[in-house]
Q: What sequence folds into this?
């Protein structure tokens, strides 16, 4: 009887947590995750474990990685768009794709994509310089990174409407929070929810466009053997499992093209938008960054060597991603029981690594709410988390760490440096709006900034 009473007594708090999750999952994080090592909660039918200490994160995501998978919630939310690609696949199907695609993103091969990043940024800056005025910098960055990823995927930006692809991707991602909530509540997958029909139609449009591009490239390869451009699509068509020699079917290439479009477009755009806003509110840091960029970026650049020398600019980007990580939460589902810190995680338990909270954890970071790029300088005297890999995780961690992290950092540094060398961006909003999670962490309202040419 007491157990039944306790269950009913907890209903108001559970309903409050559900409403917060529906509105913004970041707001639904328990306050304890900002200072505790491990936090347990129950939401509807789910047993949830929040893992908030670097050693426990390593133990969960690395030592026990074979006892976890991405879970039904992620597949239900983004599977209709991204299929069974690298982000959503599990087990042996994920493993062979990871092995096959690793050479595509080797650090020494990223330089081949730099010209497309520079061309796209230059066109964007010319447009901004001509128009001036006030822009939503998050929208500008979405369009720019969308065009860059399309050009690096296809080498021919005119062959596809990059803006239309970005819009379809936004429509699809916007409604995914309802799918995630439905999974938490245990509702059937066929149940309608706001935006579902439009979202699924947008996902299908993306998949149809990708399939057309694959067919066109295969035809080009047949007609001109060895003449295909060195872009992501050509690399995907050539990718093979080093153990078995297996190559990807067209549907698998579609899955991974759209995975790279999502992961390499939206996350980078948001990281840049948040960074521009923060620099605009810290003019003393902005002046130092401008001095570094003016000194290092000479000639037509940037070159890979110049980008590697932008130490302060890189630390500014990293600090911005600490405060607003583009992917703010990692969710896994336990497939085989194990224990963490004496807590038993049974099969079906939802394991959450709240990256947003981890990056602001009071036991890991000094003055965690303060924007301070010097915390990433080894000799600056800050106390740093002992295991950076599992205390600072903008690209995830463990075996499933983002395969395109080097690509994303190169693209972000290119855009940041070229923009700040040419333009001054000043925030128009009185305060920075909070982040709202829709798979990625978007600003709750557009980040309006005025644009002026730098003297």
A:
């Amino acid at each position: 009887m007491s157990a039944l009473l306790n269950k009913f007594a907890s209903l108001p708090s559970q309903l409050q947590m559900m409403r917060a999750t529906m509105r913004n999952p970041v707001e639904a994080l328990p306050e304890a995750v900002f200072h505790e090592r491990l936090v347990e909660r129950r939401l509807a039918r789910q047993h949830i474990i929040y893992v908030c200490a670097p050693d426990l994160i390593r133990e969960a995501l690395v030592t026990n990685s074979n006892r976890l998978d991405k879970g039904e919630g992620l597949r239900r939310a983004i599977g209709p768009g991204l299929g069974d690609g690298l982000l959503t696949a599990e087990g042996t199907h994920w493993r062979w794709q990871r092995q096959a695609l690793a050479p595509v993103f080797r650090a020494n091969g990223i330089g081949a994509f730099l010209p497309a990043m520079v061309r796209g940024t230059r066109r964007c800056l010319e447009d901004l310089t001509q128009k001036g005025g006030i822009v939503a910098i998050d929208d500008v960055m979405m369009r720019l990174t969308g065009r860059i990823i399309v050009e690096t995927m296809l080498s021919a930006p005119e062959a596809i409407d990059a803006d239309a692809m970005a819009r379809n991707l936004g429509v699809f991602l916007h409604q995914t929070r309802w799918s995630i909530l439905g999974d938490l509540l245990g509702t059937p997958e066929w149940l309608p929810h706001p935006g579902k029909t439009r979202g699924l139609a947008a996902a299908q449009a993306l998949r149809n466009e990708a399939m057309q591009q694959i067919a066109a490239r295969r035809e080009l390869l047949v007609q001109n053997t060895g003449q295909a451009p060195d872009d992501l699509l050509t690399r995907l068509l050539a990718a093979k499992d080093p153990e078995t020699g297996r190559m990807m079917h067209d549907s698998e290439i579609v899955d991974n093209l759209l995975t790279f479009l999502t992961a390499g477009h939206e996350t980078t755009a948001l990281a840049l938008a948040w960074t521009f806003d923060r620099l605009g509110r810290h003019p003393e840091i902005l002046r130092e960054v401008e001095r570094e960029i003016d000194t290092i970026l000479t000639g037509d650049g940037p070159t890979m060597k110049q980008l590697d020398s932008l130490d302060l600019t890189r630390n500014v980007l990293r600090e911005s991603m600490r405060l607003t990580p583009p992917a703010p939460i990692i969710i896994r589902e336990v497939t085989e029981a194990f224990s963490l810190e004496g807590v038993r995680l049974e099969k079906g338990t939802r394991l959450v690594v709240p990256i947003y909270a981890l990056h602001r954890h009071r036991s890991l970071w000094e003055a965690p709410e303060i924007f301070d790029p010097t915390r990433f300088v080894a000799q600056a005297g800050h106390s740093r988390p002992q295991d950076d890999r599992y205390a600072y995780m903008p690209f995830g961690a463990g075996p499933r760490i983002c395969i395109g992290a080097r690509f994303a950092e190169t693209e972000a540094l290119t855009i940041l440096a070229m923009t700040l060398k040419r333009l001054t961006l000043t925030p128009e909003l009185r305060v920075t709006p909070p982040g709202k999670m829709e798979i990625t962490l978007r600003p709750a309202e557009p980040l309006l900034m005025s644009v002026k040419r730098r003297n």
About this structure: The chain has a mean pLDDT of 87. The longest strand covers residues 38-43. The CA atoms of residues 8 and 53 lie 32 Å apart. The first helix runs from residue 2 to 9.
